[in-house]
Structures are given as structure tokens and as C-alpha cells.
């Protein structure tokens, strides 16, 4: 595998899909703002307005997140990546969003262990 000569550039405003480790519902609020998906203080309103639902303009966890799957230690991060990839490929059926160009996933667990994955679709 060869590295591109120039890494793609993007900003948080370019994120089309966000997958969060959401064991606690408030993580939708503060993690989406820390990721730059929403401006500080905007996420709570976006959630209430339904903008983060699969049919909203700023989807988060279209597969239901940890509340729908459980918080299985060591695997929730890969489920976020899997969902992002399926969304990017347009293979999510009833929960399909407009296929994202940039997807970011966030996972945490085991104390201070965090992981962030940025995926970019090549057209």
C-alpha cells in the first residue's frame, strides 16, 4: 500500500456522520461539540430537534449506539467503524443516511483509553 503524496484535508465542518461511544446519553452533547460536529452549546438543541436522527442533517449513531446493542467491552469501537463503513457504502437499508464522504467514530473504555477514527470515501 502506498501513501498518498498529499494527505486529504478536511475540517470538522466537513463531517457527514458521527459515531459515538454513547454509554451515557450526555456523550452525544459534549463529544459531538468537542469533535466540532456542533458549535459549543448547539448540540442539545440539535438532538431535541431530531437533527441527529438517521433522517436528520447531522446523524449520530444510526444503528442505535450502545443503548441498543449493549456496552460490550472491547467491541463497541469496531461496531461504530462498521456502521460508518456501511453508511458510506449505502448498505444500511431503512436507517441509511445520505452516504457520508467523511465519517468520524469515537470509542472509549478501560480508563483513559480513547480512539478516534476518520474515514473518507473515495469517489
Features:
alpha+beta, 123 residues, 4 helices, 3-stranded mixed β-sheet, 3 strands
Q: Can you walk through the features of this model?
A:
This protein is an alpha+beta fold and 123 residues long. Helices cover 28% and strands 15% of the residues. The chain is built from four helices and three strands, in the order βααααββ. It has helices at 26-34, 43-48, 65-69, 76-89, and strands spanning 17-19, 102-109, 113-120. Strands 1-2-3 form a three-stranded mixed beta sheet, covered by helices on one side. Strand 2 (102-109) and strand 3 form a beta hairpin. It is globular and about 40 Å long. It starts with 16 loop residues before the first strand and ends with a strand. The mean pLDDT is 87.
Give the helix/strand layout.
Elements: E1 17-19, H1 26-34, H2 43-48, H3 65-69, H4 76-89, E2 102-109, E3 113-120
Parallel strand pairs: 1-2
Antiparallel strand pairs: 2-3
Q: Briefly, what CATH class?
A: Alpha Beta
Binned, the helix content reads 25-40%
CATH level-4 homologous superfamily:
Thiolase/Chalcone synthase
Radius of gyration: 14 Å
How far do the termini sit from each other?
Answer: 18 Å
Amino acid at each position: 500500500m502506498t501513501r498518498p503524496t498529499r494527505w486529504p484535508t478536511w475540517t470538522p465542518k466537513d463531517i457527514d456522520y458521527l459515531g459515538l461511544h454513547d454509554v451515557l446519553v450526555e456523550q452525544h452533547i459534549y463529544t459531538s461539540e468537542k469533535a466540532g460536529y456542533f458549535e459549543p452549546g448547539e448540540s442539545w438543541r440539535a438532538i431535541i430537534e431530531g437533527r441527529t436522527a438517521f433522517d436528520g442533517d447531522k446523524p449520530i449513531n444510526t444503528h442505535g449506539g450502545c443503548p441498543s446493542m449493549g456496552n460490550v467491552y472491547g467491541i463497541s469501537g469496531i461496531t461504530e467503524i462498521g456502521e460508518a463503513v456501511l453508511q458510506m457504502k449505502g448498505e444500511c437499508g431503512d436507517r441509511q443516511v445520505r452516504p457520508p464522504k467523511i465519517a468520524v467514530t469515537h470509542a472509549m473504555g478501560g480508563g483513559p483509553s480513547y480512539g478516534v477514527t476518520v474515514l473518507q470515501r473515495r469517489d
